Amino acid sequence: MCKVLVFAGTTEGRKTAEFLDSQSIPAHICVATEYGEELLPKSGNMTVSHTRLTEEDMENLMRSIQADPVIDATHPYAAEVTKNIRTACEKTGCRYVRLLRSSRESDQKNDRAVYVSSVDEAAEYLKGTKGNILVTTGSKEIAKYTVIPDYRERVFARVLSLANVAAQCAEHGFEGKNLICMQGPFSKEMNRAMIEQLNCKYLVTKMSGATGGYQEKLDAALETGCTPIVVGRPLMEEGISLAACRRMLCKKFSLHPSREISLVGIGVGSEKLMTLEAQQVLKEAELIIGARRMVEAAAYEGQDTCMEYDSDKICSYIEEHPEYEKTAVVLSGDVGFYSGARKLLEKLSGHHVRVVCGISSLVYFMGKIGRSWDDAFITSAHGRNANLAAAVRTHEKVFAILGSRDGVSVLAGKLMDYGMEHVRLFVGEQLSYEQEKIISGYPKDFISYTGDALSVVYAENKAFVPYPATHGIRDEEFVRDKVPMTKEEVRTVSLAKLGLLSDSVCWDVGAGTGSVSVEMALRAARGRVYAIEKKSLAAELLQKNKMKFAAENLIVVEGEAPEVLEDLEAPTHAFIGGSSGNMKAIMELLLRKNPRVRIVINCIAMESVAEALRCLKELPVTDTDVVQLSVGRAKKAGPYHMMMGENPITIISCTGDIR
Prior knowledge:
By secondary structure, the protein is α/β, with parallel strands linked by helices. It has 22 helices and 30 strands. The strands form 6 sheets. Strands 24-23-22-25-26-30-27 form a 7-stranded mixed beta sheet, sandwiched between helices. The protein has a 6-stranded parallel beta sheet with strand order 6-11-10-7-8-9, with helices on both faces. Strands 3-2-1-4-5 form a 5-stranded parallel beta sheet, with helices on both faces. The radius of gyration is 35 Å and the shape is elongated. The protein starts with a strand and ends with a strand.
């Protein structure tokens, strides 16, 4: 019977043996010592020997067990043993697989780079070149570059932004435009911009690995046509990694090993704030997947990594690589707080998935500013419309994750526009890192503020207006003029018939002063309301009422329906308070935009009622309802109160029918 033959002189060899044993694949394992044998699993699927073998012994063993394949997992410096294994495989016709110690992408040789063993050798090489040079090897050996002709003009040194470092560089002639004092880490885009700005033909870097930003520098140099000078020689031996070896075995033997996938919240950033559970899971993982910044913060030396944040691509990568028995997907903050974990849990439902919580930005930040958050309104404006101004108006405490560099200034401007200059703001950036910044002030202090794209804000509004439990704002609260307004009793019944949801997309056709539009906007705080009005005076009143109630999700559209409606997004709900004789055309457009749209129509004139009822008969609608509402209001007449009747209103409602 054929067996897999493994020469296991390394940790990778032992792990390969353990993998074969766990999958019940017959194997013979060769180790150099009895101690090495003791480390291996004991099972009926595996035979082990610790006798040192000559090349002839290896040939005989390969033939006797019909080895397929032969995996050479010996130490990189055991060159003679590797030579004998290769020769034995050639003579017996066995497939040879060289298993190398794990290495990162950044440790591999690139044909377009120049590799040197020291900074002295780099400087010596550059003496014979022309063109500007960007040096990123630090300040300690900066004096070695002074041997380069015209170094004061050609060499640009990027060093830490510390006074003593700048002084040290200046002593050797690196100052002014040729000294760049900046604190990393630097993205590929930043490196590229610097290379292009300085017109550099060479970039000198140490092979510092992922955490030193080596790959970002190498990629930037190669993309700009700049030649990388790499201090530190890569291992040149050819072979495959442990993961690739497992992948080969899975394919050969049609293996589907059980896998443990962990979704790990790594906290707000700093390693010291990562939970002990998270650290342990990450140490045991064979593969770390996530956005580059998080992977670099979480991965340990020797682990395989995949830089990816798209949930679909993450799941595809996991499916395509069954060789990893323990995979960790790293996510910022806590996995249950505006995290990508939700989508991943849905897509990985067929696997055993472990969820490891972390410290969220909310918990960390609120602790830093000394505020409780159990009674705060919590939301995120990262990649979504959070309607923050309205939230601040109706809540004493609001915490939000921001998603753009101008997020704070935009919020500050809206608070100023809506008369909330008194609101106190707390802003947090780079939380838990050395560059952490937490500042506070009032909207006027942040009007021109530009910050980190991923930041958080806490707004404290002592003069907040509590969010009403039901619709029914009093008529007196609206800004009014000689423009018709739907009265509060009629408005209340009409909105009840609409049945809005918090994320509804609403049209108010013939919006007038905007009383219905405003109530819609407050009800559908996570949605949008389009107030359509053809009269300029009414449109001005709409804007005033929008500002008064901080209805940020209310969009005023000036023009006549149905023409002006064509380019609006499809509504889930529509209120028609005035149609100017275009009732059927408006309803046809509504049903074309959304065949299941919910429609409520208010009619005063009998002709409007007749037209609306005709539409109900001719158009594909269901759930029809007709209500006539008569309201009487008491007015004082001397010492008495007299009931004065308002015009009766007919409220007609229906829902699009797709049957």
